[in-house]
Amino acid sequence: MSQVIALAGKGGTGKTTTAALIIRHLAKTGRTPILAVDADPNANLNELLGLEVETTLGEIKNELRSAVPDSMARGDFIEMRLNEAIIETDDFDLIVMGQPEGPGCYCAAHAFLSQALEKLLKNYAYVVTDNEAGMEHLSRMNLRKIDKLLIVSDASSRGVMTAGRIAELIKPLQLEVGEIWLLVNRAPQKIPEVLDEYVKQVCEEKGMKFLGYLNESPEIFEAEINRRSILELPDDTQVVKEAGELFERLLKGA
């Protein structure tokens, strides 16, 4: 059975960077095979992983309208194109949802992603999915069972409050979530006492486990500005070491 780790959080919190760091940590610690899923229509996880995307699930969904050859069954066509959409590396594979088929609704692309994931999940020990800011789309996917949901916040009371609201949004979506964790990202070296107390309060009220604070990192900032892969960061980079310790807690549920 695959361990599914899903990330959520409002835009600008560093959620996608956190997803890339988790994938890096899983690979470095030999927890393979890994499937990375970029389920955000504004896809950029591939850039943080140093990969080029040629085919997305959204594009394949569009092709089903007119590009299926008369001599080929739709199921065979989907399987062929799905295999072409998977970006393979030595340590992990990546699949990107991409843009939906038309303006206004992501439903069809999400439905196709769920079908693809259903086939793929059994082949991987870990699945790490980077989601868009909202949570409603998870109800349209076959990720009904999420082992660990990691909600990423910035180091502000408003950000933590928003993370708590996201945790609340899960309840009506009929998702089976094993654990809900909160990570406060891009934190200052010295955490204000009032913020720390509020984090503990919100975690207790919303049923979240507090993973910890991940400090602001100049190395991450430089890598993102220069569009370099997070995988290129040296193992002894401070943020990589700090993140690794936090992710071990996440994986072990401690």
Automatic annotation (TrEMBL):
Superkingdom of this protein's organism: Bacteria
GO cellular component labels: cytoplasmic side of plasma membrane; cytosol
Gene Ontology biological process terms from the UniProt entry: negative regulation of cell division
UniProt domain CobQ/CobB/MinD/ParA nucleotide binding: residue ranges: 5-227
Pfam annotation, one family: CbiA
GO molecular function, one term: ATP binding
UniProt name for this protein: Carbon monoxide dehydrogenase
